[in-house]
């Protein structure tokens, strides 16, 4: 590859760069005069207060395919944000770390099985890990598994994943098997040098869990926030790829060349662009985070308790929320990472108290921290909820391992202790396990599909919500000629009204927050 080819390839990694008649140049952003790395950041920094309108708990069909009763929260209403939307789309479209395209792929899965040492996986088997890798591949349309293999590796602490013999065997097998367009090495992250070495030896694309999961995310992303978070998670991949390209070219001394008197080498220049890009994405995400804060304070003002529904991917989180809220717009899918955007759904508890269920992105074992960190803005919502429901698929052979995994991720997300200790564990899919009995005390067995166990779950949720929000259940005597009753209907949850027609009064059972109760007493002082 000569310097022009290299430069073309490297620059093609970065959005907006093109070759002009005068050589390599940065193009300008499609929506302003700035260079292309302004994508994702606009001059509009003020918060759009229109966002709060989305919290109205209507069940009407929203815009842009918004599902009924669902609030994705980072979608904007006004035209004022359309430019930003376009920029995010552009950023998302252009920043593809590895061009896997939308076409068909025949994947060869290689699972390096570590038999001992620090990287050995406990609580699982190689076969189940391969099964999970197969599940990931099948999640992608037009992707199929051509072959799969488990190879023992005895050198887990060394740089090289495979011993010499195994590597040769693998290379022959890949070359001899027809229809392979990619090899999925089932490890968290491959080092840039391993990736390059494998691609050179095998002549096809080489993927690891990080890149496969990101590709799934990319396909499933709907909202601006998800797209930005994915773009951020892709930066490390772009960085590795850049390093690979440059190292490859280094033998020719290319990366040490200075660019047009700038005092920067190619590598330094590219790295700086990526850094700038990362900063811009982070600042866009920060603005979205601030909007979320605004939404949260609005919810708090409305006094709706918030229940976050979490769990391993495909365990049935969306299905459970659908069953609890009756929201027919929700679409559970037998896919990993079907849900990528935090959405909020209103439901009612037996006392008619309105609660908001937050549907969240699922977890997966051994997801690199960088990936989780990218989604921390979304997951921050969980920290501010009143209750967490941990859904488990008890029909899954890995259910115990999945639980361990979810709990360890929750810990790493610094979820407050009060939420961890009050967490409700729901054992889902009991219809697939004949005569299921929950072994853990306090766990609530249900089937989101057949709706078995939902009544009990509703009751447990209500008890815990009342406890965790410090709400009071009170019997208040109201004068029917005053606006007391209508005030209570508006500001609290009225459970029961017992009218005494002779006295023109009623005893009203309400669930009410302490702040609302204070306001009530101020407006309607006792003995007035
Ligand atoms: N048999 C049975 N299937 C269920 C049950 N709950 C969910 N499913 C199925 O499990 C699959 C995944 O359901 P989802 O609700 O999309 O799972 P999720 O946890 O939201 O998945 P992600 O968003 O991808 O993390 C779908 O095919 C559901 O129909 C259940 O109680 N019983
Ligand atoms: Mg889901």
Automatic annotation (TrEMBL):
Listed Pfam families: GTP-bdg_M, GTP-bdg_N, MMR_HSR1
Record keywords, A-Z? GTP-binding, Magnesium, Metal-binding, Nucleotide-binding
Q: Which residues form the Hflx-type G domain?
A: 305-469
GO MF term set: GTP binding; metal ion binding; ribosome binding
Acidic residues bias: start-end ranges? 73-83
Compositionally skewed regions (Basic and acidic residues) per UniProt: 63-72
The protein's matches in SUPFAM superfamilies, at most eight in alphabetical order, are given as:
P-loop containing nucleoside triphosphate hydrolases
One Gene Ontology cellular component annotation held by this UniProt entry: cytoplasm
UniProt superkingdom: Eukaryota
Q: Where is this region: Disordered?
A: 57-83
What PANTHER family does this protein map onto? GTP-BINDING PROTEIN 6-RELATED, GTP-BINDING PROTEIN HFLX
This chain belongs to which protein, by name? Putative GTP-binding protein 6
Origin organism of this chain? Muraenolepis orangiensis (Patagonian moray cod)
